[in-house]
Amino acid sequence: MDTEKTLLQQIRDKEQEFSRKIDTARADAEATVAAARTEAEDLLCTADKAGKASAEQVYWNVQGKTAIEIESLNTAANLDQEAARVRGEKNIHEAAERIVRYVTME
Q1: Residues 6+ apart with CB under 8 A from 5
Q2: Contact, 98 vs 91, CB < 8 A?
Q3: N or C end of the chain: smaller count of CB under 10 Å?
Q4: Cα–Cα distance measured from residue 41 to residue 59, given in angstroms and rounded to the nearest whole number
Q5: Distance (Å, rounded) from C-alpha 60 to C-alpha 66?
Q6: Which long-range contacts (CB under 8 A, 24 or more apart) does 2-9 make?
């Protein structure tokens, strides 16, 4: 009977075997989770860098377009100002005559 294990000993051996398997599976799962976390962090860093680079590119593109539009608006405003000045200069003599007539009540 010494060579044969008792039923209780066989159950205890199976429990230990399953406990080792569970520990191994737990360790494997923890390693997999840790690897997944590391990969996720790497992906987030990569995505963050790519997002910042894209945002910066969009910023500079829009800033360039805005500068061009501002220059175009300034040019148009200068042209309008010059046109108003020319029209005003043409009417100075007539305006002065009207003012004089109004003041002198003619």
Answers
A1: 13
A2: no
A3: N
A4: 26
A5: 10
A6: none
Instruction: Tell me how far CA of residue 62 lies from CA of 26, 47, 90, in angstroms.
Output: 52, 22, 42
Q: Which two tokens stand for residue 74?
A: 């300034």
Q: Indicate whether this model's pTM tops 0.70.
A: no
- Interatomic CA distance for residues 34 and 25, integer angstroms: 14
Task: Show the beta-strand stretches assigned E in the chain.
Answer: none
Give the three-state DSSP class for 3: coil
3-class secondary structure, 75: helix
The pair phi, psi for residue 5, each rounded to 5°, is: -85, 145
Kindly report, residue by residue over 59-92, the tens digit of the pLDDT: 999 999 999 999 999 999 999 999 999 988 888 8
Q: Are 46 and 38 in contact (CB under 8 A)?
A: no
